[in-house]
Amino acid sequence: MLTVKSPIVPVEWLHNNLSVDNLIILDATIQKVGTKSDDKKEKKQIQNAVFFDLKNVFLGIEGEYPNTVPSEEYFENEVKKLGIDNDSCIVVYDDLGVYSAPRVWWLFKVFGFENIAVLNGGLPAWKDAGYKVESKKERELLTGNFKANLSKDKISVTEEVLKASHDDNKVILDARSKGRFYATEPEPRKDLRGGHIPNSKSLPYAELQLEGKMKSKEELQKIFSDMNPNEEEMIFSCGSGITACILALGAEESGSTNYSVYDGSWTEWASRLELPIEK
Predict the structure, then answer these.
(1) Which mean pLDDT values do the consecutive 10-residue runs of the chain (279 residues) have?
(2) Cβ 158 vs Cβ 272: under 8 Å
(3) Which of the following is catalytic: 110, 164, 238, 246?
């Protein structure tokens, strides 16, 4: 029975375990915010990957704000449709390196599933290693026996974030670019206020990465030690909850589990005009 020992696995590890029965590979690719899709390019995937449709299925489609966590029952039912069992071992990746895959990793953890890891470098690293890819395939999948168990301690809501912004024992880290954090560049979502949550700190997700891969455990430990020297509880935010999960992945890899992700993130904060902002 295959298990993961770390939240991040290299492509070599996945390649060596492709034939293990309880392995499930999820392709969690979404379009990067602010970019245009390339529909003419044929979609490729790692062999036997199952598409995990973040945008259209798994991101709180009934929520007021984009990309919010779905209900426990909804998540469980949709995950079962992908053939995932309680004893599955999941490796999730995306086409951009490490972008949307950490959101899926975090979602499973929120719903009580631990045997999951993100493929470091995603599809580009897989291709660079010379491993086989295939055209995207629609396959008949057996219904899994996955059981969700929602754990709310990994999720922060606006009222908690507002309280944390006045608490010296909490650290709020923002994964957006510094330009968006300081409102020197516009938000990709039209008419959204620019700036940041008061007393939050800027930690662009790109600073946790090098050439499409997450940095080493030691490098990540230094980053989080510099940002949070007293090892306080951390809240991660971004534009709509996707790249904040890259910070969560980096924190977990560095050995820190005392964190949560602000589910509504800047889209909710900036939309609610009663909430204060800094620039």
Answers:
(1) 97 98 97 68 91 86 70 95 98 97 97 98 98 89 96 94 97 98 93 95 98 97 97 96 97 97 94 96
(2) yes
(3) 238
CB-based contacts of 250, cutoff 8 Å, min separation 6? 208, 214, 215, 220, 223, 224
- Tell me which residue has tokens 């620039």: 279
Percentage helix, strand, coil for the chain under 3-state DSSP, each rounded to 5: 30, 20, 50
What's the burial of 149, exposed, middle or buried (CB within 10 Å: 0-12/13-18/19+)? exposed
Q: Quote the pLDDT of residue 34.
A: 62
Query: Is the Cα torsion angle 68, 113, 81, 40 positive or negative in sign?
Result: positive
Q: Which residue pairs, CB below 8 angstroms and at least 24 apart, start in 16-24?
A: 18/47, 18/48, 20/89, 22/85, 22/87, 22/88, 22/89, 23/88, 23/89, 23/91, 24/50, 24/82, 24/83, 24/84, 24/88, 24/89, 24/90, 24/91
Residue 175 near residue 208, CB atoms below 8 Å: no
- Any catalytic annotation for residue 89? no
Q: What's the predicted TM-score (pTM) here?
A: 0.95
Nearest-angstrom CA–CA distance, 247 and 204: 9
Give the separation between CA 249 and CA 269, rounded to whole angstroms.
Answer: 23
